[in-house]
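Troubleshooting: if your tokenizer reports a length mismatch, compare your output against this known-good record of 203 residues.
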Amino acid sequence: MTLQAVAAPSADDRAALLEHAARLLTPLGNHRAIASVHSSAGYVAMSEDRTAEALTLVETGLQAAERSNDPYQAMIAHGNIGLAHHFSRNLERARDAFTHQLRLCGQHRFRQEASEGLAGMAAVAAAQGDDAIAARLRGAAEAFGYAMALFDKRIDDRLEREYLAAAQIRCGDTEWRRGEQTGAALSLEQAIDLALELIGTPK
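Known-good structure output:
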């Protein structure tokens, strides 16, 4: 059903397939699968610049994840919500979503998954003009396996193009690389603390 929803030619077709999947899964109490289906479809929608559709899908995924009491699916959903808000230019809500994601990553030791939240927070920092912090967070994200965690490089290309490229220019290549190296040396706890504290988000 997920593959069909991803491949469906129109938003209406995708919505119908996802609704059908939810009807099949809900009587079984399989909210985890409902969360996964909607988060996956939302991520694909983001990669195709269908941001409004993506946000609806990933928020539905988060609701299902919370009903399932599954921290992993909730973490994935929060990360996707953060990306969708990024691409809607709602940086405050993006930061809030990545904050939730990173807290779950810290609590449950989701190391590679934390890389997405760190990359997202790097883009938030860049948008706020905190370029040195953006470089450190980006370096930390790469160190925790961000490249391997990506399902679609178009997502990261968009973060780079819309947020990080300007920060790197303002910082200068040498300082940016130095910041990335500093971030790459951080522990998971230190990287999350940097994301949650240094750009003004309380722990």
